[in-house]
Amino acid sequence: MTVGIELGLAEGGAPALLDLEELLATRLLVQGNSGCGKSHLLRRLLERSAPWVQQAVIDPEGDFTSLAERFGHLVIDAAAHTEAELTLAGDRARRHRVSVVLDLEGLDQDGQLRRAAAFLNGLFDAPREHWTPLLVVVDEAQLFAPSGAVEVAEDARRAALGAMTNLMCRGRKRGLAGVIATQRLAKLAKNVAAEASNFLMGRTFLDIDMARAADLLGMERRQAEMFRDLARGHFMALGPALSRRPLAVRVGAVETESRGAGPSLTPLPEVPLADARAVILAAPPPEAPRPPRRIPAAPPPDILAQLAAARPAAPAEAPPPLDPEALAAHQRRLEAVMRAVLAEEDSAYRPVPVLYQDFLVRCRIQALSGPPPDLGAFRRMLAVGKAAVPEEVAAQPEWAEAQALAAPLPEDLQGVFLLLAAAALAGAPCPGDAAIARAYGTRSVGRARRALGFIEEAGLVVCRPNAAGRRIVAVVGVGWETAAGDVEA
């Protein structure tokens, strides 16, 4: 079944149709200067496709929250949730096929990048059985996939760029159809923009942007000047889901209102303000608190914690301390539960909060005594578990030194380092890119290589090829070195 979404009118007054099924396979890029009607176009597309396909909107300014009233979208206030909660929310949205709007208004740029990346990763890492079609619309995409350096933390920029790259480059097989809008193509990362096969180009004034728009539409450079003459709401369309030749499109009306509409002229007061200097420059009241930008909502209650609290209260007396043998036995049981969690299919690629909940449930089933590990301790156990360290290596006294070296690294990189350290300590061949990717929690060998490069830049390992081109990794400061290993293994 072919579903045609009417965007508006084409030349000659004929309906301008967008093939929704073709869009799901080929992705869409919308470009135009501020005020050209990009958000209006995205709203028209979302409204007309809402009955046919699940949608997820990354909304940096809160413009699309009005979709909830008319079409039932779930609005998620990103400022009120942690990154782990948003990753879990993305996973659950795919499982239950709920259309959502991620409202990033009220966050600084660093917070917007981190939370958008977490939510996109939750959508991307959903289990295979939930890879149903999902239209992912990202407004102001140049914020989340910048082409150069920006004034945010480097790890936040990398996280957002990686999530956007996954969406546009690898999302198709997972049912994710990226629709990205940007003010300038020059500000958008090339590897993100290059994956779109459909284009809607609006009013553009800079020469470099007009030239790139003309190139993308297959037009001659002398025709690029026409982008300056496009009116608000008018776009040039091209792509397998739109038209095989450049087609002028005028976007139609929408049913919902935008919170980001441009301001209109308002008359000035007829009577000037008396003593304006005294009013405007008056001293602030003493100890006047600065109002917060937004008060985060309280996190939802943890169902497992409620169930635990409902149990009969234990005696007030403190439990006797466990002897070393009992502590060791308890640790072995926790490690056995961790191995059972990681034995599940695709467990290495599931979000950490999902794995943690699975781990807690299994601990209760096993009736393990004592409080379970907190999330931080669980992440450290997970890093060791993903590294699949052999028992004989973990039993060596030098292994404690390897764990100490891994401690300063981000938690998602500790498993990669421990995998390499275990191989070096045992003198085994260097793990291949696929094994490093699994320890990193991804299927992308490219991300695995970047993770290895990050650890090398941190000064913990040194990578070098042997005469046959196989990789050798040495751990800095302790003298351990792997045997030569095939990166494709």
Automatic annotation (TrEMBL):
Cross-referenced InterPro entries: AAA+_ATPase, ATPase_Atu1862_pred, HerA-like, HerA_central, P-loop_NTPase
Domain named AAA+ ATPase: residues: 24-311
SUPFAM superfamilies membership: P-loop containing nucleoside triphosphate hydrolases
Protein name: ATP-binding protein
Entry keyword set: ATP-binding, Nucleotide-binding
SMART domains per record: AAA (SM00382)
Pfam families listed in its UniProt record: DUF87
Single GO term (MF): ATP binding
